[in-house]
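agent> call fold_tool(seq_1)
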Amino acid sequence: MRTLTLPLISALHMLLQAPYASSFTVNNPTRTTGMTSSSTPLATASINTSTSLSARTTSEELIPRDVLFGNPLNTSPNLSPDGKYLAYLAPSADGVLNIFVRETADENNDNAHMVTKDTSRGIRQYQWAKDGETILYMQDFEGDENFHLWAIDATATTTSEARDLTPGENVKASNLITNKRFPDEILVGTNERDETIFDMYRVQYKTGERVLDTLNPGDVLGWGTEDTTFQVREALVKSQADSSETVRVRNGIDGEDGEWRDLITFPYGENGNLVDFCNDDGKSCWMTSSMGRETTALLRVDLNTGETLETISSNDKCDVGGVVLDEDTKELRGVFYNYARTEREFLDKTLEEDYDVLFDLGPENCDVSTVSKTSDEKTWVVAYTRSDGPTEFVLYNQEEKTIKSLFVSNPALLEYKFAPMEDIRVTARDGLEMVGYLTRADTEKETPLILLVHGGPWARDGWGFNQQAQWFANRGYATLQMNYRGSTGYGKSFLHKGDGQWGVGDMQHDLTDAVQWAIDEGIADKDNICIYGGSYGGYACLAGLTFTPDLYKCGVDIVGPSNIKTLLDSIPSYWGPLRNDMLKKIGDVDADEEFNRKISPLYHVDKIQSPLLIGQGANDPRVKQAEADQIAFAMKKKGIPVEYVLYPDEGHGFARPDNRIDFNGRAEKFLAKHLGGRAEAFDGVEGATAQFPLLAEEESKVEQA
């Protein structure tokens, strides 16, 4: 079974999505010994749910920051193809996330051995190779996002050395594809030939031997393969002239079959992509498309003509979010959607029965997701996720219909009570319905509110356990997260209603309207509102303080841009093919200087009335340090309260736990000062690398005097 999660647009479009701004967000299970069970293994009974005399939604005691934002003890379990081994991420003795492996049958994690030896930011992306012995993982250098692909023997009894499969300075690897029919080779894209685009290489990962497989003609954003031949047969192309996207295919790699041809073009404003080739000798494929409708539908399309042969599934309120295929036959098994919570449409009765069993064995109000499977699909790793507690991973025996616990997410969290997350609807001033998520601090009275703005902006928030929202609730602040216009998943009109609406337009108005909704509903204290966000959310924070200065008591900006023109002038070279598309979505800041000045907070510093806290990674390749420097120093020059923390070993967010906990300690102190909430004692974090450019400038002036 193959599950494909479908982004509406290229992942590269998530320009201002902060991956590590708040915490390590891969599901956070714990390093505990599994227990055998045929019923629910979730440790809900041990959660402290005692009711206090107040209407506080979380524990009366302060939940420590290091519990909320430190490393998980175990996370991201992954079965080897034959099921013999279980890999997972866990911290080393030095507190750095590495890959550990044990035999699946040995339920004692103390017998696992650490396969990798990372000593800095930790490993977060990995998978088994199809040989069942090798692990492939991605790692960059101090947040520069030039990820290399590494291979290491996971089953050796002695320490193995990792092999860099994509070597070279400033080389970035992407588009990794594996195939069980070709267990000793992989396909991976790199930009080593041309830093702006990615060619595909065929790599023998055990030896490191590689050859150029498919040359990028200059307009391809991503590649796909046909499974039986493991040939690159699909390309997603971006037009620089009109920002349309074209699915390009070929019948083979030799002679006439090797000629690429355009299958279907999605004009700017439409969404769609090829999901996979059907198993019918090249006659048809599965595809998503919004053409002729508002949201994307799942279609079967003729591979020769591009005509729709069959419309399989659609949802009037949201786009196709995931497709489940049989890995061998390519038959459809299920389609997933997510308007506010995950919704499933099953096309295979066996799969539906498995999910029914998994829901029956789990606790109420949990979501179920499949994380990993063996090649024969008889053993699954399944995650139970809820909004008011940690995730648990279990092993599911598909034949016996039983589960066995692997890891309960962060056991320290089980000692505390957490608030449930509510999915809400807010109507914007122009009548547009928006989905949002509310985490209350108190159920009976209004409290200070933190508007937590997601990055992207072409991304979305979702339901589940959110460390930041729980942290805020425990300190006395309600948290509001909104999928404002421009967020993905809600159809093409909703997405493109955000075009040209940054800063002073409707995207920011949506946030303002959401705050007003919370005030009107008696949730938020109108005099104590904070806007807080990372990446695009950091920009929204700056825009909120400059363009609606009376609304917010304070703001926290993490890796947010302050000048949109300088932001786009400094994006990584491999995002160059997307620049024109970004200009269509943001507005043409290249040609229209007045427009750039209109939407860039840097030019409106005089309007800021409220204190601001800025956090930045010095190695950020998306939002360069200059974006934080320029607004921080401009505010200081004008005497506007601003604090600025810089981490020299971080990138687009804070991956190292010491730095993450350090910044959150500073943010907590800042929020308590300006909103009046509770705060855990803070005096810096040992091991954090925080620097203070504003203070350094003052010290330099003193020394010069």
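agent> call fold_tool(seq_2)
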Amino acid sequence: DPTRVKINEQVFESPIKKSPAAAAMPVGDAGAAELDLAEGGGMPTLMVVLYRLPIIARKEAGKWVFRWDDDALYLTSLALRKSSEGKANLLWVGVIDTQEEIPETDRADISRELKEKFNCVPVYIDLKTRDQFYNGFCKGILWPILHMTVKFWDNGTVTFDRHLWQVYCAVNRKFSETVVEHYTEGSMVWIHDYHLMVLPTYLRSRLPGAKIGFFLHTPWPSSELYRLLPVRDEILRGLLSSTLVGFHLFDYARHFLSCCVRLLNLEHEARRGILGVQYAGRHVMVRVSHVGIYPARFTERLGHPGIAKALEDLHINAQGKFILGAIDDIDYVKGISLKLTAFESILTNYPAYRSKVTLIQVAVPKSSKREHAVADEIVVIAARINSMFGTDSYKPVHLIVRNISFDERIAIYGITNALMLTPIRDGLNLIPYEYILCAPEGKGQLILSEFTGCSRAIVSALRVNPWNFQEVLSAIDRVLQRDPEEIKARHKSDVKYVLGHSTENWSSSFLYDLERASEPVHKLTKLGIGFGMGNRLLEFEGFEHLGSAMVVKQFKSCSKRLFLLDYDGTLAISKNSTLKGRMSHAWARPDEFVMGCIDQLTSSPLNVVYVMSGRTATILEKSFEGITNVGLCAEHGFQYQNPGSTEWLMLEDHVDLEWLEVAYEVMQSYTERTDGSYVEEKSAGLVWHYLDADPDFGEWQAKELHGDLEDVMSPFPVEVVSGSGWLQVRSKSLNKGKMVEKILERLGEAGKPDFVMCMGDDRTDEDMFVSVHSALPGSESLFTCTVGVKPSNAKFYLRNHDEVSHILASLCAADDSQWEIGMNREGSLQKHLMRSQSTGDKAF
């Protein structure tokens, strides 16, 4: 029966579980959900991208020899291979794990052999670059940040090495070139761990329609620590270029989402239990699922003669002793020295335990050069304990500083009464899962640091703070005194959990979500804007991406063209992502390129251009100084200036503004209690800005303020409108929709436009979209467009401000074939009138 597993002569039911989404899927080997990665015929391709290939490479007698490394990818590579057999074509991409330089002359043969025998594609990077990449940036900068163990002082102030960041990006680009080279339509890409966090950025620009999954196998730090990283935004944007981002624990996902909110000013949400972030017009899913192990690998090996031989070779006298076991990498975050010191304390304070309790500590060396001091400290403490408490027949600490074989691992698990791991920060540690399956009846107890990810999943474990020695001592004492029946019951419960949360289930569930990622797409289209000609862009159901071709075609065929363009977020945007709130609002201006486009469009007698803004008349006059033919609408139409005129007119002759003082007092009371907020006073409205406030607290305060204002202002003819980082009180009779009606009335029937381009990015622009649709129903030359992909009354969308600039430039180029549009050195739009003369072409 495939749902029953025999472990150490005990039979366990295997409670195979599926995610709700996968509940209807068929069950395969070991109960794993089937990898159904394609709808058509033939096996789909899953590209698994990781820093090191799951291959052991050795050079023997001058020839390279390769074999599978079943412990690679955090012990999951074997399970991925087994669970995908007959269901998906796995293609592994990564570097060959060798410290020997691979000559150019050998690479073709090596690549061919790895592809044919192992379905692996190597990425060739020289050893010097790999050392700077791994030991320099990954272990030296990223690892401490991610594990929240940053050093600010190390024989001097620690500074950020920009060169190492460039190396990191160069290696990620090299990986992207290899992935793109071997990518086929319909493949999925699954990237693993912190070595490749900007790889999704490079892949998204080359493969915009690809489904890219990313799983981080380390913790994610709090936003207050992560913000120390000078390249914080680039790494966040790299991860957000994925379709699906995975974390082991909700704590890590929560910190990641907090970074998105606080550093990139993005919003996150939960839909039907699935977390997500809106980024660059895409819905990026965030998933929480702890990886498991491949149970069959261990259960099938139990009882093998090789295990008894391995135990004999270890020369450990476990007879009559209570064994505390531990297997850790030599890394300062593993807390091995804290564990040894705690063990020393219990032997010092509890003499009865001397000669009765033994600690077996396996310390596995890693390739990082930074751990020599850690290893030296471990050896010194272990030697001190043995010299103080050891005898001819009793060795308190068996310290094994080397890599151990698979059989040795199982042998140590078999004699261990309680596994004790005390890391100070640990994202992924599957040693407890292995121990639970391999521990015989009567054993299987766990003492786990509360900073170990799996301690949240294994409910029977005693969770301790490794810095609190008294707590660790109490835990050791408790496992020594625990009732045998309780040990047996807890162990049985743990075995069922491990069997039901295997690597197969984890990977299949993740890939199921990746395949059915909630990006609302229904087809691919060929557009030439933003990513280059011929690249694929996503098209949204009932909500089309605005392509320049269709706009230019209608634009050229019309002679009465009207442009209604929002200011903030559409024409103007802050280029500095570190400036928010008050500073961003004050400094945001259209760049020279956009100003050149507006100047060009207003110079044609066929075009009427209005800038629709919530800004004051003073700011708009200053921004568009020198462009006389542009119409300006300030404060959503409270004041406006027609093209060619310098006179400011009122949308309504008599506007009741008695409510301003009342609203100001309410807003000011919230401002005093919300650091980072302020009130912007306008002639006909008030805006409460809270973008500089703490994001969570700002949102809470905005919701409360919205409710208070609606209650207090109910007797007045006003409305309360919320936006991203702001909340406004304005007159009901003053909005952009009313202003559109006024503009169309001014143009009259004779000047009724046959082409309308109406663009905006926030809630206040929705009135404009509704009004223009109502006035010009069914027009093929009406283009209402929202900036950013979100629910809107507009028919079209553009992803960002840059795409707005491209559309405007395309229309400028189409407006007069005599004009050539280009960029000058300052980045502004320049125009060259080309005339053919007998002496040659002149530009002036």
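agent> summarizing second result for user.
The longest helix spans residues 162-182. Residues 14-41, 518-541, 576-583, 817-844 have pLDDT under 50 and may be disordered.
agent> awaiting next instruction.
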